[in-house]
Amino acid sequence: MIEEIGEDVKVLASFVNGKLQPVIFKWRNRTYQPLTIASSWSDYEGQFKRVYFSVLTDQSNLYELCFHTRNFQWCLVRIHHD
Amino acid sequence: MTDRVILHVDADAFFASVEQITNPFLKGKPVVVCGLPLEHGVVTAASYEARPYGVKAGMPVAQARKLLPDGYFVPVNIPKYLFFSTRLLSIYLQMTPRVEAYSVDEVFLDLSGVADPWKQAVELKRQIAQETGLTVSIGIGPNKLIAKIASDLDKPDGLTMVLPEQALQVLGPLPVERCPGIGPKTAANLKALGIVTFSDLAQVPLAKLRWWFGKNGEKLYWAARGVDETPMVLLDQLPPLKSKGHEITFDQPMRSVEAAQAVIWEISGRLGFEFRSQQRLAGGIRLKVKPVGGKAVTRQTRLLAATADERVIAKTAFQLFRQGNFTELRGLGIYGIYLVSSVKDQNQLHLFPEDIPGEERLQTAIDHLKQKYGEGIVVPALNLLSSDFKGSGKG
Fold first, then answer.
1. What is the mean pLDDT of chain B?
2. Please, where in chain B does CATH 3.40.1170.60 lie?
């Protein structure tokens, strides 16, 4: 099941080999530690790049995070529940 | 011509595979990618796991849900697929600069003169799987026709090579539908004439095929013999666009003229911005209207002067709309036709910025905003007032 969220979230990220990578994110006062980055891709809104990550925090939930380079803001786009 | 070595690379169930890669929960499950709106749209792609249930592209989502109630229905995400398509393209270009992008998930590679194309193809499949997680099916042949047919013989994740001397033997027993360009209608016409396979087709004299199918008869004649001299269209040789447009399908039937007008302005704004960004002008406008319960209707007109001005596009499209007596709509589209380059047709260059007419300055300023922040940053006020429609775009 896919749940559309579209809310800003706080993310602690690292740069590994020049690549951005979310490490921990906080949403609705709960902290989530991504275990695995399943995939990442990007697109553009105007001239600003948006980088998407699908991250697995456990065996049943996948979170789609988006980093917008216009305002350096992270957003939780949607959740996939297995 | 027999010296040519062409690879046709087809990404397997591309849209659905990308969804499975980006969401590991979907791996091995029946995934149906749906055009928007999710419940009223059509199936865009189905994973290999969904296909045995009879789900296929072009089918209404409601029908697919009946066939596959436990399927995973996900909305189409074109930017995501374009990202993966671009990644694939960069892998192909590492192998050869002679790449023809046939579609978002299919390419032709010209490996003529390469010592061992089979080995190259194996390496290509390995690299694609490693870098993207996708699988591709590859056909190798002496021309584009045979390469494309060959890639379809072993799917998914297949690799098939047809040597020139094997072409007739391989093609012979295949049904004519396997031939690119032979759709269900032509196949039905051929079947009615007793022509089911490539072998059957090869028995028919050229004159007869010309008589039955006109110009296409000659293509069929040569296809039956595995002959195809179509050249590669490399990335820097793409033919100029003749038309460009967008369509919107509505969630609910649209009944008011005001709402239609808002949609026309929305599409026109997008088209005008794209034409100006790409230095194109439309010499005519085509309106496509999809009434509820009826076939799509198109109307078009030539403009007195080619334009990229969204106000002219919108006004012309609205005039075309008013000519019809449309009551309930399920979709609407606008196309700029007879496209020309605005570089050649530039009206008058202005020496001083203050000489530029106010409207042109305004449009340039809006374009700059859209280029920087995205197309949604400026919308016509009409669209803010109208809340009668909700829809999804295509094109």
1. 88
2. 14-80
Domain B243-394 has CATH 3.30.390.30: no
Q: Which fold has domain B14-80?
A: MutS, DNA mismatch repair protein, domain I (3.40.1170)
The ipTM of this complex is 0.92
Phi, psi (rounded to 5 degrees) for B287: -110, 135
- Could you tell me how many CB contacts below 8 A there are between chain A and chain B? 47
SS3 state of residue B188? helix
Q: How far apart are CA B154 and CA B11, in angstroms?
A: 13
Cβ neighbours of A45 in B, within 8 Å: 373-374
* B6-10+84-224, CATH topology level: Alpha-Beta Plaits (3.30.70)
- The span from the CA of A2 to the CA of A64, in Å, is 10
Numbered residues of chain B with Cβ closer than 8 Å to any chain A Cβ: 21-26, 74, 79-80, 82-84, 133, 370-375, 377
Active site residue B106: yes
pLDDT in tens, B263-291: 899 899 889 988 988 888 999 999 999 88
